[in-house]
Amino acid sequence: MPSPIVIRPITRQDFEQWLPLWDGYNAFYGRSGETALACEITAMTWSRFFDAYEPVHALVAESEGQLLGLVHYLFHRSTTAIAPNCYLQDLFTTEASRGKGIGRALIEGVYDRAQAAGSGRVYWLTHETNHTAMKLYDKVGERSGFIVYRKMF
């Protein structure tokens, strides 16, 4: 019988298992080696999870003491709603745990926290080539039709 997956808030003791997941997420999006995030960004990201004044949060998927995935999300204001919006920023699972419902469980964990915070919307972005993840996203959300523009500085 497979061990149950627990979705829970991250703790300070999770750093050593969170870091390889974070590095894997960033590598997926081309941020590794010479293009890796600066150590200061990783350190700041980690510290924000534990700062009560920050709107950034993290959940992890755990089974038998091993972290199998992460999700980072944040709340922000909007000009079109009173309640905060919830932006699901990062989602990643280990390669061995893909296709086993962990990504869905992490997204649903964010849904639960967003509803508890009074948020009326959870949204996220993915790269247009991330077809595998989009198969899941099409089941747990709806495409908004919006196109993202940006300018990097």
From TrEMBL:
Residue ranges annotated for the N-acetyltransferase domain, each copy included: 5-153
GO MF terms, alphabetically ordered: N-acetyltransferase activity
UniProt xrefs under Gene3D superfamilies: 3.40.630.30
Keywords assigned: Acyltransferase, Transferase
Pfam families: Acetyltransf_1 (PF00583)
InterPro entries assigned to the protein according to its UniProt record, in alphabetical order: Acyl_CoA_acyltransferase, Diverse_Substrate_AcTransf, GNAT_dom
Coiled-coil annotated residue ranges, if any: none
Record has Transferase as a keyword: yes
PANTHER family the record matches: ACETYLTRANSFERASE (PTHR10545:SF42), DIAMINE N-ACETYLTRANSFERASE (PTHR10545)
Protein name per its UniProtKB record: GNAT family N-acetyltransferase
Organism, as annotated: Mesorhizobium kowhaii
Lineage per the UniProt record: Bacteria, Pseudomonadati, Pseudomonadota, Alphaproteobacteria, Hyphomicrobiales
